[in-house]
Amino acid sequence: MKCFKNYKGIFPMLVLVAMFAIVSCVEDEEAENNKAQLSWDLSSVPEGDLSANSGSINLDVNWAFTQWQIRVEEVLEGEDFIQEFTPRVAGSNTIGNTTTRVTIRYRQNSSYTKNVVRISLQSTDGSGVKLTRVISQVGQEFIPLRVNFNPDVTFQNISGFGGGNMMWGTDFLSAREIQLAYGTGEGELGLSIYRVRLSPVRSDWPAVVNTVKEAKKHGAVILASPWSPPASMKSNNNLVGGYLLQDNYDAYAQYLNDFVQFMAGEGADVDIVSMQNEPDIQVSYESCDWTIPQILDFVKNHAHKIQGAKFTASESFNFNQAYTDQLLNDPEALANLDLVSGHIYGSGLAPYPLAEQKGKEVWMTEYLMNQNSGADINNWNRDEAVIWEESMGMLQTIHTSMVSNWSAYIWWYIRRFYSFLGEGEQGTTREQTLRRGDAFAQFAKHIRPGFTRISASLNEPREIDVTGYKGDEKVVLVLINKEEDGIPAIELELSDNFNTAKATTTSLNHRQSVVEVALDGKIATLKLPARSITTIVLE
Q1: Distance from CA of residue 496 to its chain's centroid?
Q2: Distance of CA 378 to the CA centre of its chain
Q3: CA of 132: how far to CAs of 69, 119, 120, 127, in Å?
Q4: Percentages helix, strand, coil for the chain, rounded to the nearest 5?
Q5: Confidence of residue 15 (pLDDT cuts 50, 70, 90)
Q6: Among candidate residues 189, 184, 181, the one with its CA nearest the CA of residue 165
Q7: Active-site residue among 214, 315, 366, 423?
Q8: Which pLDDT tens digit goes with each residue over 337-396?
């Protein structure tokens, strides 16, 4: 009995232990059963590309005791085309096994490029569960565009593309800068016309000799433009404003001739001389006012005294054709006029049928675009995307000049932060080309003086400007893609005269970069980057 008595106190303890064990087991089982769970059923999500059209797909999310969200984690290619997830956030820490159907709606892909995104399903309560899946959407079906060109249909002769020297001071383009601007090697710009100022002070003339001689080494055509006659010849005895006294017309013609002869004597021949830069605008810097009758008088009765260079009359601020119409309609004035010239500030960029009828080339001799930084240099936005959009505007004016049957296009300063070569301001570096220069080179380097514009067009209307040229046993095609998307395929057929097709492009992401051209028999195919200019050379 004594032993039994000793065991008697153990029974309650055993009961308590058993009860504790049972409770622990239940709690462990509950903890295991309440563990966060998250998975998805992707059987309804295509392995391949979704349609380019808008639509929706469903997937089932299986979850328990967790909160979760589904989202686009990363765009791998193209754009985010997922419009919405419904629901995007769901789940609960207190609810067991549940299935939630998620609808994924996606947008139409209006581009030709594929869209690829990575989506993720992830717990948001710290459980660490995360699942991912890549979803792709095909681009729009693209039928290659065709460039049609006909070398037998011709338009104007091309005299070249150029830019201006620094007009005031003596910090003119160096030999290295001339090489970059007028050379035709890799990374160079291939300009062919050089505009310089014809100073109203004779003692200034020697300063421009060396830079002109350097340009002439590269075959550049030299255009000399005066901003004012000598002050002593003018009504106000001042280099700013006023007008040339009629009694001094002959002396001024001789002054222009003296400059031409001086430069020739220095081995720096001037090819074309102008009588006046922008006679039709009043400004606060070196200038001279001319009326239309005054211009007619000078050209008709005095311009013949200028020897050894071609002559162009007034370079109107906005190519006001009235300033040259009277010259073209007067036989004596016409005999002294070699070409018609003007600028395109504000307006004036249009065909000039009268000049064509009279057999005179039309030259655009000055233009610039600089985000209004001439008013305040701090207006210049250094963002390459902003600069490129303005450069696309420059390219549009060149294209329009060409289809207007103009023979030359000359930019303002060659060396300036908003131009072709850097000069040290606004983050630019001296003796380095700028992207805007590379864009200009797509015309200048490949369309050489003496080329002729030919018929060229696309087989369907698109926001792509096309011009064609021939010369040196080549055909050159220039395509400006103004569309926001790249063009997957442009085709052209090579005639029997041509066996090769080479191309370069400039855009926000390219600088005279080589473009791959696939040649299948006589069919050449290439891509055009978005917002770009591409030049194709057939040989």
Answers
A1: 33
A2: 22
A3: 12, 6, 4, 16
A4: 25, 35, 40
A5: low
A6: 181
A7: 366
A8: 999 999 999 999 999 999 999 999 999 999 999 999 999 999 999 999 999 999 999 999
pLDDT in tens, 208-241: 999 999 999 999 999 999 999 999 999 999 999 9
What is the DSSP secondary structure assignment for residue 433, as one 8-state letter? B
Task: Quote the tokens at residue 445.
Answer: 């380097």
C-alpha distances in Å from residue 393, one per residue of 2, 274, 363, 390, 398: 112, 27, 19, 5, 9
DSSP 202: G
Cα dihedral 168, 174, 179, 180 in deg (nearest 10): -70
What is residue 398's three-state secondary structure? helix
Please report, as a single letter, which amino acid is at residue 259. Answer: F
Strand partners, 477: 468, 536
3-state SS assignment for residue 370: coil
Report the alpha-carbon distance of residue 378 to residue 364 in Å, rounded.
Answer: 28
Query: Is 366 among the catalytic positions?
Result: yes
The token pair that represents 404 in the structure block = 């207007």
DSSP string, 61-128: EEEESEEEEEEEEEEEES---EEEEESSEEEESS--SEEEEEEEEE----SSS-EEEEEEEEESSS--
- Beta-carbon count within 10 A of 164 CB: 24
Mean of pLDDT over the chain: 94
E strand or H helix at 359, and its extent? none
284 Rama class: left (phi>0) / alpha (psi -120 to 50) / beta = alpha
Is 286 labeled as catalytic in the residue annotation?
no
Give, for 400, the enclosing helix (H) or strand (E): helix 384-403
Burial 268-284 (b: 16+ CB within 10 A, else e): bbbbbbbbbbbbbeeee
How far apart are alpha carbons 172 and 259 in whole angstroms? 18
- pTM score: 0.84
Question: How far apart, in whole angstroms, are the C-alpha atoms of residue 231 and residue 449?
Answer: 37
CA quadruple 5, 7, 8, 13: dihedral sign: positive
At residue 128, the pLDDT reads: 78
Q: Please, which residues have CB within 8 angstroms of residue 368's CB and are 6 or more apart in sequence?
A: 374, 411, 412, 413, 418, 419
Interior angle at CA 210, CA 204 and CA 213, nearest 5 = 125
Instruction: For residue 293, count CB atoms less than 10 angstroms from its CB and return exposed for 0-12, middle for 13-18, buried for 19 or more.
Output: exposed
The residue annotated as part of the active site, out of 278, 286, 315, 361, is 278
Average pLDDT rounded to a whole number, residues 457-481: 97
Cα–Cα dist 295/302, whole Å:
10
- State which H helix or E strand residue 134 sits in: strand 130-137
SS (H, E, C) 318-338: CCCCHHHHHHHCCHHHHHHCC
- C-alpha span between 189 and 178 (Å, rounded): 10
What does 232-298 look like in DSSP terms, one character per residue? GGBTTSSSSS-BB-GGGHHHHHHHHHHHHHHHHHTT----EEEEEE-TT---SSS--B--HHHHHHH
